[in-house]
Amino acid sequence: MSDPLCKRAVLAALSYQPDFSGLASFPALNSQDGQRTLRWMDQSGLSLMFLHQLQSLGRMGSISNNWRNALQQRSTRNIERTRDLLEEFKRVNHAFQQHGVIAVALKGFTLVPDFCEDFFLRHQSDLDFLIYPDSIENAADALQSLGYFTTHLNTAGESCFVTPLRHIPSSDDDLYALQHHRQVDLHIAICEDSPWLSLELPQDCLQHAKTHNINGVEALSLSLEDKFITQVFHAFRHSFRSWVRLSWLLEIGRCVEIHQQDTAFWHRVVERAKGSLLTRRVFALVLGLVTRLFHTPIPSPLQCSTREATSLRLRTWLNVFAVDWAVSDWPGSLKNIFLTTEFIPGRKLRIEYCRSRMLPKKSHASLGAVAATDRNMFLRWQTARLSYVAGRTAAHLKQIIDLPLQHLRWKRALYASRGDILDTNC
């Protein structure tokens, strides 16, 4: 595990009011802590944003030459990678138009500039599109004409299309290298339900879509209100699987910061997001993480919307566990399992969810959806998946051993929080 003090120093440098003092004790890059910290920054999506922050604020002298070189080399490779993926985005978008498919680009490139300042500061792997359910077959034809195919066309949920596999994904792969294969995901909703909970989502996002110029390509993207809602639900969904990429939370914080004073906009976000207790708790959790990690002030309409949904348990977890949980190394921490009762109704569903978190199955692996070109390649990929699941399970077993101690810490924190409320009432 990388040094938590180093991780907190990175978060502080990226905060609403940047603090670079922690970088003075950054480990040497060639040390074990240095390599682990850099790996965590890469996986968290923070490396390029961290470099940009130092450059834009004239603080490159806060890190060593080795650190500067490593980050700048990543930036150079990611520029080439992103340009390549932008060309693929152009090709896919054109194919949809040729086949009469109304396809709205989700996340990714459409997050510039409101969530991310520049295309080249993001690390992106897949292309995601929102389409009408009755357009799925035409969209599939469009992708197949470009060399993509799928093993299962899902007319009621997400469909994943890939190009043939020519490389077995590995933990040693360079995240910033040109892609070995492509993946395009088709969605009929801005966020898919999980087996344990059903989210209340806007159903008319396609009707509110707007034309967005993406590096010279005219493409449809969500309205800004729907982009913000999508990013919140996206971060929540991944966090409840196991782990959340911190760059997603930083991007949400950037949007909040840019539009901080636009009260009318935030009222529209609240109205579009609906008002169910579950939705407001999702917002309370994600925005709570943003404020505790990056100290971004939350606009009053969002505060008012989430205040009553922020229960004692949720507030206690955010105060005590949020940062430690968020900065954990991949595959994530089980500490958010204490929030299960806040989001999943029904004891049976909660048990199933907890079991899936502690003992992940092969079907839960996020090694990547791939299509093998021959049987030997397929077998090698299956072996890689099993190895991935074994490694993830081993990491979780270590956490399971520590879980009783963390549960005791959780109970003590809840008890102290209840005591604070009683003192306040007195």
Average pLDDT rating: 90
Instruction: Give the terminus-to-terminus CA distance.
Output: 44 Å
Going by helix content, strand content and strand pairing, the class is alpha/beta
- Share of β-strand residues: 5-15%
Please give the CATH class: Alpha Beta
Helix content: 40-55%
In CATH, the topology is named Beta Polymerase, domain 2
Total count of helical runs of at least 4 residues: 15
Overall 3D geometry?
globular
Q: Could you describe the largest sheet, including whether it forms a barrel?
A: 6 strands, mixed
Instruction: Provide the CATH architecture.
Output: 2-Layer Sandwich
Q: Segments where pLDDT lies below 50 for 5+ residues?
A: 362-369
Order of adjacent strands in the largest pleated sheet: 3-5-2-1-7-6
User: What is the count of β-strands?
Assistant: 8
H/E element sequence: HHHHEEHEEEEEHHHHHHHHHEH
> How many domains make up the 3D coordinates?
1
Query: Radius of gyration in whole Å, from Cα?
Result: 22 Å
Describe the structure.
- The protein has a single domain, classed as Beta Polymerase, domain 2 (2-Layer Sandwich), CATH 3.30.460.40.
- Helices cover 53% and strands 8% of the residues.
- The chain is built from 15 helices and eight strands.
- It has a six-stranded mixed β-sheet with strand order 3-5-2-1-7-6. A two-stranded parallel ribbon has the order 4-8.
- α7 packs across α9, α9 (277-294) crosses α10 (300-307) and α11 (312-320) crosses α15 (375-425).
- The N and C termini lie far apart (44 Å).
- Mean pLDDT is 90; it is low at 362-369.
